[in-house]
Amino acid sequence: MDIKRLENMRLENKVWLSSPTMHGEELEYIKEAYDTNWMSTIGKNLNEVERITCEKIGCKYSVALASGTAALHMAVKLAGVKRGDYVFCSDVTFDATVNPVVYEGGIPVFIDTEYDTWNMDPVALEKAFEIYPDVKVVVVAHLYGTPGKIDEIRAVCDKHGAVIVEDAAESLGATYKGQQTGSFGDVGIISFNGNKIITGSAGGMLLTNDKAQAEKVRKWSTQAREAAPWYQHEELGYNYRMSNVIAGVVRGQYPHLEEHIAQKKAIYERYKEGFKGLPVTMNPLNEGVAVPNYWLSCMIIDAEGMCRQVRSETEALYISEPGKSCPTEILEAIAAVNAEGRPIWKPMHMQPIYRNNPFITEDGDGRAQTNAYIAGEKVDVGMDIFDRGLCLPSDNKMTPEEQAVIIAAVRKCFE
Ligand SMILES: *Cc1c(COP(=O)(O)O)cnc(C)c1O
Q: Which domains does the chain have, with CATH numbers?
C-alpha cells in the first residue's frame, strides 16, 4: 500500500473507538416485546437473555439488570461490604468498577497493575493483605478483554479468606484455561453498555452459582418487595431490573458475539503488523492461559520511544521529537484523520475523587513513593501504562482500508 498517499487522507466516515454493531435480529425481538405488550421489566426476552448468558458463561444463575454498574452494586452488597470496610480494587479500570464499593460506604484500596496482562498484580495484592489483613472483598476487572492472573489472584484471596467480585464488563467471551471470564468470581458481572463487545444500548448482568444470591438480587433490583398482598418492605430496594425491550436487543446480539470477537482480533492483528519497526508494543493477551475477546486494541510506547509529555489534571502538552512520540501526539493524529482513540483508563489512585484512598504496589504503600516519582525514579505500573499507552480505534465496522489510514497516521508520528 502507498503509505505516502494514505498519510494525507482524512476518513470520510468517522471511525469510532467501539460503537454498537447491529444485525437486524435485535429489531425483531424488540418488535416481539411490542407486539405482545411486554413493554416492561418482565417478558420472554429477559428470560431468554438470562438463559443464553448462563449457557455461554457456564454459570448457574444470571440476573439481567439496567447496567453493569447496577450489577456491580448488587455484587458488592452480596459480598457483604459495609460502611467503613476496606475493599481491594483494580486500579487501572473504569470508575464503574469501584464506585459501587463507595455506594455501600466501603473504602476502595487500589492494588497496582502488572505488565504481563495490565490487570491486578497478585504480588501487590498479597502485599495489601499484609497491610490490611482483615479485608474480605476483592473487586477485580479484566482490562480491555484480556483476562488477568486469575489463578494467582484466587490463591491469594483463598489464603486470606476473601471473596472475589469479578468485573468482566469488558471481557465477555474471553476465556482463561478454557473457562469464560465472569465465572471465576464468587459473584461476577458483565455489561451491555453501547461500547462493549455486544450491547443492549445499555444493560448488565449479575452472574452467580448460588441460588440464594440470585434470588436476593432479583428481589433487591425490583424494589425489595416481600411476599404479601400489598407493597411490603423489609429491605432497601432498587429499581435496577433490565427492560424487556433492552433484553430484546441483547438477545439479538448474542448470536454475533463470536463474530464480533473475530473482527476485533483481526483489527488487533492488523495493528500489530502495521506497527512493525516502531518502538511500540500492543496490549498483552495473556497468551498460553487465556484467549481474550480483543475488545479494544491498545498500544504502549517503549520508554525510549517517548517524547516529552506532561499531563495536568485536565490538559496535556508534549514536545515533538524525531523518531519519538507520545500518546497525546498520537491521539491528536488519530483525531485528525477523523477517528477516535482514547487514553488508557487513568488509574483510580490518580483520580482526584480517590486521592485520599490507599494505593498498594509490590513495594507496599504506593502513596509513600510519590517523592520518588517526582525525583524521576521508577513509577508505579498503572501510572506508567497510563503515561505511555493508548487505546486505538477498534470499531468492528472499520474496514482494513480505513485502518490503514489510521496506521499511517500513527507511523507518521514517529518520523
Ligand atoms: C463498562 C464497564 C462497567 C460498567 O458497565 P455499565 O453497563 O456501563 O454500567 C464496569 N466496569 C468496567 C471495567 C467497564 O468497562
A: 3-20+257-412 (3.90.1150.10), 25-256 (3.40.640.10)
